[in-house]
Amino acid sequence: MRVDGQMFNSVTFKSGVRQGCLLSPLLFALCADVLLKEVDKLLSGHEVVKAFADDTACVVADYAVTLPALSRLFAEFEAISALSLNIKKTVFIPLRRQSCNKNVQALIREICPAWRDMHVSSSGKYFGFIIGPGAKLSSWDKPLNKYALRAELWSSFKLGLTLNAVAHRVFIASVLSYVMQLEADPADLQIKFEFALRRLAPGPGNWIALADLTHLCSCFHFH
Q1: How far is it, in rounded angstroms, from Cα 9 to Cα 24?
Q2: Does a structural domain hold residue 166?
Q3: Structural domains counted in the chain
Q4: Could you tell me which residue ranges the Reverse transcriptase domain spans (predicted)?
Q5: What number of other Cβ atoms are within 10 A of residue 67's Cβ?
Q6: HSE-up of 90 (CA within 13 Å, CB side)?
Q7: Which residues pair with 119 in a beta bridge?
C-alpha cells in the first residue's frame, strides 16, 4: 500500500474500515462501486439504481422477485467485504398504492426473511427530498401546522395591528419560499397558496390587507 509516496506493508481489514481512517472514503467508494455494478446487472427494464456516497436508492418493478434477489446479493457482498446494510435505516416505498402498506410489509416478511424488519412507508427522504405517494401530505401538513401554531401564538400576545400584519407577511413569505424550494412549479400552487393565506391569518378577521394579497398574487402570476 502506497500512502503519500511511501510504501507500507499490506493491511488486512477484518471488520470494515476503522472510524476516522483517512483511507476510509476511498476504500468505501471502491467497495461500493463493486456492489453497485452487481446491483445494476441484477436490475432490468425500468428498474434502476441511483447512489451517491452511502445513500442508495433502487427503483424496482416486480419487488416480489427483485427484493429476494437483492437480499441474496447483499448477503454475498457482506460476507466478502465485512460491510453490512443497516436494514433499520432502509425504507421501502410502494409507489403505486399507499393503502396497502401492511400487506406489503407482510409480503416482504414472507418472500424476504433477511429483510423482514425493513420499514414500509408511503414517503421517505432521499438527498433531503421527500419522495413517494405520501410526500405531498407529509410535506405540506407539518410545515403549515407549524406556521399556523406560531401565528396563533403571536396573535395571543395582543400585538398592534401593524406588527401583526408584518408578522403574518413574514410567515407567508416563509411558506411560499418553502413551497418553491420543495417543488419548483407545482400544478396546484395557487390552491396551496390560498390555503396558506387562510392558515396564516388566524383569529377574528383577516389581518392581511387586500393590497398584500394582490401584491403576492401578482408576484406569483396568480389572477
Answers
A1: 17
A2: yes
A3: 2
A4: 1-131
A5: 20
A6: 18
A7: 91
Could you list the residue range(s) of the whole structural domain that residue 20 is in?
1-61
- 183-217 in b/e form (b: 16+ CB < 10 A) is beeeeebeebbeebbebbbbeeeebbeeebbeebe
Residue-level pLDDT at 120? 86
Q: How far apart are CA 21 and CA 82, in angstroms?
A: 16
In a domain, 20, yes or no: yes
End position of a domain, from candidates 33, 61, 89: 61
Three-state SS for 39?
Answer: helix
Boundary of a domain, candidates 42, 61, 80: 61
Q: What's residue 203's pLDDT? A: 46
What is residue 202's predicted lDDT score, i.e. its pLDDT?
A: 45
What is the DSSP pairing of strand 91-92 with strand 119-120? parallel
221 Cβ contact partners less than 8 Å away, ≥ 6 residues apart: none
Q: Give the whole-angstrom CA distance, residue 60 versus residue 66.
A: 7
92 assigned to some structural domain? no
The reply to whether 121 falls in a domain is no
What are the pLDDT digits (tens) for 40-58?
888 887 788 887 767 788 8
Question: pLDDT-derived band of residue 169, with 50, 70 and 90 as boundaries?
Answer: low
